[in-house]
Each structure stands twice: as structure tokens, then as C-alpha cells.
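hey so i finally got around to running the thing on that chain from the lab meeting. sorry it took forever, my laptop kept dying and i had to restart like 3 times. anyway pasting the input first so we r on the same page abt which one it is
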Amino acid sequence: MLSIENLSLQRGGQWLLDDCSVTIQPGQRVALVGGNGTGKSSLFQMILGELSAEQGHIRLPGGSRLAHMAQEVAGSDRSARDFVLDGHTELRRLEDELARAEASGDDNELVRVHGELDNIRAWDAPREAEALLRGLAFGDEDMDRPVSDFSGGWRIRLNLAQALMVPSDLLLLDEPTNHLDIEACYWLEGWLKQYQGTLLFISHDRDFMDRVATHVVHFEHRKLYYYTGNYHSFERQRAERLARQQSEYEKQQKRVAEIQGFIDRFRAQANKAKQAQSRIKALERMETIAPAHVDSQFEFRFPEADKVSNPLLTVRDGAVGYDGEPLLSNIHLNLMPGSRVGLLGVNGAGKSTLIAMLRGATPLLSGERVTGEHFRPGYFAQHQLDELDVDASPFLHLRRLTPGASDQVIRNFLGGFGFRGDDAMASIRNCSGGEKARLALAIIAWQKPNVLFLDEPTNHLDLEMRQALTMALQSFEGAMVLVSHDRHLLRNTVDTFWRVADGTVTEFDGDLDEYERWLSEPRRKEAAAPAQDAKAVSGDGGQDQQGRQSRKKAGAERRQKVAPYRKEAKRHEQALERINAEKAEVEEALGDTSLYEEARKDELKKLLARQAELEQKEESLEEAWLEANEAIEAIEAGDD
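ok and heres what got predicted. didnt touch it at all, straight out
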């Protein structure tokens, strides 16, 4: 049991936690959630004994074994396997004792050490370490590579593998899915659900928390709120709590107004002065219930591009790679206005290389890449954060791009990304990774691209900003190619998936749930299918089998013909949903009677113009949706 008792913590002159108490039971898997800078990582430091609180205690049962995931690792000559095994400190201690006993010829000591090694199943440890590495997408050829050979992201995976290798009663993981691809996320979820100890983890990945967490601790207004259930359950429970809190606050404010009115009316009257004084004291004693601030501080959109081409981009028989060696070949694809593509595939398969080629940063080794006249890409990747001018402010970054823009327009735009007041004008030198990521996204949106290439845009972003990005991408009317391990973002913004694997790019005909099932089933079915077909044809009743095969082939061809139209119809449906939602917002705004006053004439004109624009888009989308469905019906009727 982990007990947090009356804990208060101050960092940099600001209180992060104030008199907080929470009890976490053995075996619970607890997600720590809250905005950046609310104290989640600091709580980990206190549990590990690296940081002291101003008040209170954190208590663990005696003899509890802790494991945690380090955020950095220096390069070394240790092999990946040995680095992971180093996390098992008891194993390493016993190995040292065994070596000393063998050197001294102490048979009694040898018997004792061998007994302890048997107790901890030491002989299975190398196999377990390799299984952890394979689960995190390291290949067999990586097992003996030195740590210094791996890039920063892969070293983080090594840290994670080492933490999982440690025998522990309490496991602390800070953003474990950062730098993982979707395949590794699925594997990690399965591993953690089998973990027998208590798990505390910090994450901004909704799907990961939904699948792993049994409880949630929310850091909010210097307090810790404890919820039972996964992240989805937490959102529902918190919404209910905030609704009750808001109702109580409104009732209280009504009562405050009544008391204050009494005081104001009768304070000067001698016969009522005593009653007024008693009400003043009551007002002072009344505990103020804070209003429920449920609105995110982030709200932005990607403005529409001025012009667009159709198609935006075409690649024919393309090959891309480095030093003349192709990494991906036989690439055939079209990127149309409104295309919303998610890239699937393990890290190292070539997703980032593909994006570099699509946006024009990496030339084709062979084949043809053709862009439309008005192809205007916007690109986000983690390395761009290092390319920002740390001595410049967010305001100056946008001013350099558009010298003629007014100060207020720039300030208003930056406000949607959380840069308000002095924050918009201050140097970004001391900004966090999340703040720099927000600025990089703001720079992209400011330039009005008609196609977005986003490579892991949610790393460093907290939940509120991820939600704002999801909403912005949903309303973006241009094309998009997205690489992300954030499945919530993919589910809510992507229509089509391209699978990058086996040296090429193919369309994956399914959603993320189907992709997970596909990953969990070895490709034995694909390998077995030809053999089964051959056996069926050669056996008795061969003509019937051939007939079934012919019908199966015809069905496959029909599905292949219909698939593009189904996807087109689905895309139009999702666009209609977004337009209907915005129309409802506009119509609600038009219901404000004060909008029709002379002073708000310009605002009224803009809303009416937007309403007309949305209605026109709705009409054209409905026509396109009908055409797609008519095409589906024609194909299916023709085959019948």
C-alpha cells in the first residue's frame, strides 16, 4: 500500500500540492493526469526519495521493491541485453558473489549462491531480457549492439525495458509511450496488465490509459482527486463532480448576493445594525466554492488555404532511401484535397522517410513525384523544436513570417495556443518541450497550408492541448498525413491508413481495431491460404471448389471496386458532421439578441456570411455523398 498523507510541495516559489492525501492499494494501476507543471513528476521524485516535501509523508511497506523508468541514458559499450539485465540488481549482485566464490574455491559459498540464483530464476533472465527488447521492437541483431549505437528515442526504450526487468512491488513510469510506435504500445499494454505489483504511470495517451489504468489520480488546483476506473470513466466522473460544484457555486453566489443586499440595505439602520453585523460575519465564514473552470485554455483552428490543387500530390512507381539504397520502393499514391491519412508501421520501417519525400525534402531515387500548382505543405516533427530561435518570442516568430500583420491579430492567434499577455512577448529560451511544440504548431497554422505532414505531433503535449489539436484537425479542410502513436488522435482525425512495411507502402483496409487484430495474428493464415486453395482444387469435387474460388475472386474484385467509394462516402459523412456542428454553433450565436445592435453589425455580417458558406458546403457535400452511394449501388447491382 502506498500512502500519501497531508502532502504539501513547493517548487520555484509556487505551491504545486497543498495538504493532499491519497491511499493506493496493492495491485492497482494508477494513471496520474493533470496539466504540465502540476507536480506529477515531482511526486515520483518524492516517492524515490530524491525530493523532500514541505509537509506530510509518503509511506510504503517495509522492504518494498521500487522500479522506475529513467528519462535519459548515457552512451556506453554495454550491449542492449546487458543494459537491460543491469536493472536486475539482485541478479548482478549474485553473479559477482558467484565469480568471487569460484575464484576462491569456496564450495559452501558456491552452493549458497547457486541456491539464491535458482530462487530468482536467474537462468531465465537473459531470455526474459530479450523478450522485453523484442516486445519493444528491437531485432535479434540489436541484442549485442552497444547502447551508444542507439539514437535518443531507442535509448528511452532501453530504459523502459530495464525498468520492466527489475523485480518490483511498485513500478513508476513517466510517459512510457513516448517514442513508441503503435505496435510497441499494444505490447506494453499487454505486459502491464499482467504486472502483479502496483503501477503508477504518467501519461497523456487516452487509449493507453483506458486500456491499462484501474484508477486515476488527477492533479488539479494543488489538490489530488482520486477516481476509480480508467480514463474514460474519470472524464465522466469529473464532469459530474464539476457540474455539482458549479451548481453549488451558483447557489452560493445567489445566497451571497442576498446577504450582501441585506447588509447594504440595513447597515446604517440602528435597529438592524446588529443583524447586519452577524451577516457580515457569516459571509466572512462562508467557504468560497471555486467556479468550475472546465474550458481548456487552448482553442485554435488551421485557417483555410487561399488556393488548392486537385490532386495535390501524385507519386508513380517511386523509390526513396539513402545513399542510393532504397528503403521504400514501388510507391504509387495520390493525395487529394480532403485526404486524411494515418501511417502505420514499426519505427524504422520508413514512415518519416516517406513523409520527407512527400513534402519534397528528400528526392526520389527513381519514379515520379508531381505536385499540384497550389501545393502548400505544413510540416511538424520533433527535431523542428530545436530549430526554433530560442532568443525570439512567439510573437516575433510570427512577425518574421508576416511583417505586415497587425499586432492584435498576431496576439489573438497566439492566444489560442496558450501564449497570452507577457508569454507571447517573452523569449522561448526557458520554455518547456510542450510550449515549444505549441509554438511550432502555431507557426504551421499561421502559414495556411493546404496539406499537413505531422510526424508525432503529440509528444510533449498535455491532454488539454492534445484535445485542442484533435478538434483543430477535425475541422481542417485540407489534406493530412499523420504519424502518431496517439490512437485517440488517429481515431478522431484519420479516414484512411497506409501501412509502411516490407519495403513499400500499401493501403490498410480497416481501422485501428482491425490493425490490432491483424498484428496479433501471425501471418500464418496468409501463408496457409494458397496451400488450402490448392488442396481444395485437387481434391474431390474440384469443380465445386473452383466455382467457389471464382465467386470468391469476383467478390474480392467487387469489394475492391467499391472500397474507394465507401471511403469517399465516409469522408463526406465526417465532413458533414463537422459542418453541422459548426452550423449549430453559428446558429446559437445568431440567437443572441444583442448581436443585432448597431455596435455589433460587423460581427453579425461575419456570422451570416459564415452561415451561408457552411450551407453551401453542406449542399455540395450532400451531393458528393449521394454520388458516392449511387456508384456503390451501381457496382453491386451490376455484379448481381
